[in-house]
Amino acid sequence: MTPHQMEARIVRYGDLQPCRTAFIDAHTPGSDQKENFTIIGGGVSESADQHVHITETPGFNIGAAGQPPKCRNSLHSHRTAEVFFVLKGRWRFFWGRWGSAGEVVLEEGDIFNIPTGIFRGFENIGTDYGMIMAILGGDDAGGGVIWAPQVIEDARDHGLVLGENGRLYDTKAGAHLPDGVGPMPVLSDAELKTFPEPRAAEVVPHHVARYWDMMALADGQPAQVVGPDAMLRDRPGFEVDFLKRGSIDATEYATDQHEVLMPMRGHWRVSWDGGTTALAPGDTMAVPPGLRHSLTPSMTGEASIFRVRSTDDPAGATWKP
Questions:
Q1: Given the DSSP bridges, would you call strands 120-124 and 10-11 parallel, antiparallel or unpaired?
Q2: Contact at 8 Å (CB) between 12 and 39?
Q3: Which of these, 71, 66, 114, lies nearest to 88 by C-alpha position?
Q4: What is the per-residue pLDDT for 21?
Q5: Which residue has the higher pLDDT, 167 or 68?
Q6: Do 94 and 189 belong to one domain?
Q7: What domain range is 198 assigned to?
Q8: Which residue, 172, 192, 208, sits at the end of a domain?
C-alpha cells in the first residue's frame, strides 16, 4: 500500500471538519456551541451538513465531540455501544430519565463504555475547550438517537424539529417538514419506564477505566480495555486495547480484523511495506485487515494509544444490572 493510499485512511486532528447543527439540541441554550465530528462512518448525525471523513466502516463508527466549558450534550440513548475516551479536558457524564440517576467525572485518558439502553448526556466541566473521542457500535451506529422527550420539546421552542425520518428541520431558517413526513413522536410514559435508572455504584466499577490504571496494566503488553475478558467486560462489536511505550516492540504484525489507531499521548510511528507515517493525539488511522505493520512511539516521553479492532459480536449488549 502506497503512502498516498494510506494517507486516505488517516484523519488528522487538524483536518477535522466540525458540524454545529448535527443534532436536535443545536439551538438549545447550553448546548448550542458544541461541535460534532464524524471521522469513520456517518455516525448518528441528524444533519445533512455533517461532513463524513471516511465513509467505509469497519463494523463500528468513530466520531468526536468538541465543546467549550459549560456546554452540554442533551440526554439521549443509543441502541448499540457508545464508548468515549477523553482526549482533552474534564468531563461529567450523567444518566437517567432526567440525568439524575448517576454521574461520573472523567479526566484525560479515561474511558467510559456507556451501557446501552439508558439515557445519557455529558458536559465539559473544564476551563478550556475539550474533546472526547467516540466509538459507536455497528456499521450504521444503531440507526440513530433516541431523545428524552424534554429535549425534543425544548428544541421545538428554539426552532428545530426532528422528523420521523430522522432528519432535522430548522423552522427559523424557513425549513419545514416535507409532505408525508411527521414529527418524531416523543416516547410514551410506558416506553420511558423501560429505560433503566442504574446508580453510579452499579455503572462506574464495570464501565469506567482510568488512564493511570491502564498505564499500569500496559507494562510489557497491551492492556485489554473493552472485550469479553477485558477490564470492561462486554461484546459491543469491537475490542479496545491500550498501549504505552514498552507494550509493543517494532515487530511487524497483521490481523484479519479491521484496526483503528487513536493516539492519546505522544507521537507514534506506523510503518508498513510501502511506507511509514507518524500519528499524533487526535489523529485516527484505519488499518485494513491483512496489512503487515509495526507500531512504536516515535519520540521520547509519555506515549499511549488506543487500538480498536472489529469483532463478530453483535453491536452492543443491553444494560444488565
A1: unpaired
A2: no
A3: 66
A4: 85
A5: 68
A6: yes
A7: 3-208
A8: 208
Task: Among 139, 174, 208, identify where a domain stops.
Answer: 208
Whether 297 and 253 have beta carbons less than 8 Å apart is answered as no
Calculate the average pLDDT of the chain: 93
Report the sign of the C-alpha dihedral through residues 117, 34, 10, 167, in that order. positive
* Model pLDDT, residue 28: 94
What is the percentage of the chain residues whose pLDDT exceeds 70? 96
Number of Cβ within 10 Å of residue 43's Cβ equals: 25
User: Which stretches within the chain are classed as H helix?
Assistant: 3-7, 149-157, 189-192, 200-207, 211-217
Does residue 30 lie in a domain region?
A: yes
Residue 49 pLDDT:
81
Please check whether residue 126 lies inside any domain of the structure: yes
pLDDT tens digit sequence for 65-108:
999 999 999 999 988 899 999 999 999 999 999 999 999 999 99
Q: 162 and 242 share a domain?
A: no
Assess if residue 320 is contained within a domain.
Answer: no
pTM of the model: 0.93
The size of the chain, in residues, is 321
Stronger pLDDT, 318 or 301, i.e. the higher one: 301
CB–CB of 38/1 below 8 Å? Answer: no
Cell numbers at residue 60, please? 463500528
Rounded distance between C-alpha atoms, residue 279 and residue 298, angstroms: 9
pLDDT at 141: 60
DSSP string, 58-116: SSEEEEEEEE-TT-EEEEEE-SS-EEEEEEES-EEEEESTTS-SEEEEE-TT-EEEEPB
Total domains in the chain come to: 2
Q: Is the pLDDT of residue 234 over 90?
A: yes
How far, in Å, CA of 47 to CA of 181, rounded? 16
